Amino acid sequence: MSKIALITGATSGIGEACAHIFAQQGYQLVLLARREDRLEKIAHHLTAKYGIEIKQIVADVRHNENLSAALEALPEEWKKVDVLVNNAGLSQGLDPIDKGNINDWDTMIDTNVKGLLYVTKIVSNWMIPHQSGHIVNIGSIAGKEVYPNGNVYCASKHAVDALSKGMRIDLLPHGIKVTEINPGMVETEFSVVRFKGDEDRAKKVYENLEPLIADDIADAIWYVVSRPKHVNINDMLIMPTVQATATIINRTP
Ligand code: NDP
Ligand code: 8X3
User: Would the keyword Oxidoreductase be found if you checked this record's keyword annotation (predicted)?
Assistant: First the structure.
């Protein structure tokens, strides 16, 4: 059986780009997200193009009971996951702390922190008997810096930063690699989601600059995953050339 990669948030952006690159490399895929129609379309396309096998899991990483039932229902041979890409995540709103929307805070913390933990608990327990595996957590520049109005999103990605370090320590005796990939601005559906469907506001984020694209990050993920067994890349911070920090950006006039 080929190697298996489980990718969360595979219906868009970075997760979808990862699905493509792993499929191209001959991996079998477990693709997880909430939007069934998109999962179906992506899985159908990749199966036809690369002749690989794909399992689709329609699940919300925030709901541990449903999530674990859906993951545990995978056939036993599919639980020998070689690579887990903990990518599902989002931002909601961009407001000062005193004006923040509590539902948005809950959504970000439940998805970016608790969801990542729930998936990791299950999949790391599948990896341990094999004493191998690679967990790639998608953090952010927002997990390294805090920017105005980024408050809770930044906190959730700082948590991913701490959890990546913690996982690396705890999973060391089991031969499981842990890598954190931290992108700067990547043009995906991220800003449309952050601004709740306001496409014009989302477009302005990337106005007069060349952002990263999802494939740039998938490429880096493939690079870290394809290193020799004795090499682990702990942490990678990847920015568009025009971005020095979260807020210092060289836009063309
Ligand atoms: P997209 O909005 O394009 O993709 C997000 C993916 O996450 C979608 O597939 C979505 O699928 C999935 N997702 C969201 N919430 C849940 C949930 N509760 N359960 C399961 N899946 C979920 O954004 P990106 O590709 O940009 O984001 C991917 C990751 O990269 C996120 O963790 C984000 O924080 C991080 N990141 C993004 C940056 C950027 O500039 N774009 C920069 C730094 C980090 P569905 O809606 O179908 O469930
Ligand atoms: C997404 C990029 O700059 O909005 O993590 O934090 S940013």
Answer: yes
CA of 140 to the centre of ligand 1 (A): 12
Question: 91 CA to middle of ligand 2, Å?
Answer: 8
Cβ–ligand 1 contact at 92 (below 6 Å): no
Would you call 223 a catalytic residue per the annotation?
no
pLDDT, tens only, 156-209: 999 999 999 999 999 999 999 999 999 999 999 999 999 999 999 999 999 999
CA–CA separation, 251 and 51 (whole Å):
42
Residue 46: which domain range? 4-238
Does residue 252 lie within any of the structural domains?
no
Q: What is the pTM of this model?
A: 0.98
Catalytic residue among 27, 153, 206, 223: 153
ipTM: 0.99
Q: Does the beta carbon of 186 sit less than 6 angstroms from any atom of ligand 1? A: yes
Please, how many CA atoms are within 13 Å of residue 100, restricted to the half-sphere of its CB? 19
Rounded (5°) CA angle 183-181-113: 95
CATH of the domain at 182: 3.40.50.720
C-alpha span between 44 and 113 (Å, rounded): 30
